[in-house]
């Protein structure tokens, strides 16, 4: 007697509307493009006020929110977003991570808390992971050298590409910083 075994269809990532809230324009655009390629409808915002308006109108299924925004705090926004749609899955991103802010983000209803610069694939995995499950760890995480380089680049941009000011804020010698900036990004 032959048994017919049906193959299970591959698990598809649930897509829907994702609200991307970040005041870092290059990062926001890169993340938005990645979500669009994954089949999400993307609405990007630069701050809290714009995000509130878009969320109230669209009621997105997902949100990616930077912790520090020009016009407010992303953790405070999580509660407001979850009040608009209780099942909204929100991931907090921050370049200034610490344990206290991670706990605050999770307590307000965020499903995950990721350090910037976060890999877009890791963000999608966090948003679409089954409830109660942690996403798989990244197969190819950024190297420590790459994380350091990304942080230096971010501070450099925030200092309007002023080498002296960036070196002062990073507590490093100006010439050392110039050598780092002159090199290509590590893998």
Automatic annotation (TrEMBL):
This protein's record includes keyword Phosphoprotein: yes
GO terms of molecular function: phosphorelay response regulator activity; transcription cis-regulatory region binding
BP GO annotations: regulation of DNA-templated transcription
Pfam family, one: Response_reg
Annotated GO CC locations: cytosol; protein-DNA complex
4-aspartylphosphate PTM positions: 66
Coiled coil residues, start to end: none
Superkingdom, taxonomy of origin: Bacteria
Positions of the Response regulatory domain: 17-131
Entry keywords, A to Z: DNA-binding, Phosphoprotein
Keyword S-adenosyl-L-methionine belongs to the record: no
NCBIfam families xref list: ActR_PrrA_rreg
Name of the protein in its database record: Two-component system response regulator RegA
Native source species: Rhodothalassium salexigens DSM 2132
């Amino acid at each position: 007697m032959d048994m017919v075994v049906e193959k299970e269809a591959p698990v598809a990532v649930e897509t829907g509307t994702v609200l991307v809230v970040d005041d870092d324009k290059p990062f926001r655009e890169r993340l938005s493009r990645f979500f669009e390629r994954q089949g999400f409808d993307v609405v990007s915002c630069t701050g809290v006020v714009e995000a509130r308006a878009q969320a109230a109108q669209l009621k997105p299924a997902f949100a990616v929110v930077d912790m520090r925004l020009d016009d407010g705090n992303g953790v405070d926004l999580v509660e407001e977003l979850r009040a608009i749609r209780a099942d909204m899955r929100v991931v907090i991103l921050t370049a200034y991570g610490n344990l206290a802010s991670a706990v605050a983000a999770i307590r307000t209803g965020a499903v995950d808390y990721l350090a910037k610069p976060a890999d877009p694939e890791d963000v999608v995995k966090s948003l679409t992971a089954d409830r109660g499950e942690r996403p798989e760890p990244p197969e190819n995480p950024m190297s420590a050298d790459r994380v350091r380089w990304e942080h230096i680049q971010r501070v450099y941009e925030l200092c309007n590409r002023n080498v002296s000011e960036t070196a002062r804020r990073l507590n490093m010698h100006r010439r050392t910083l110039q050598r780092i900036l002159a090199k290509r990004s590590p893998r």
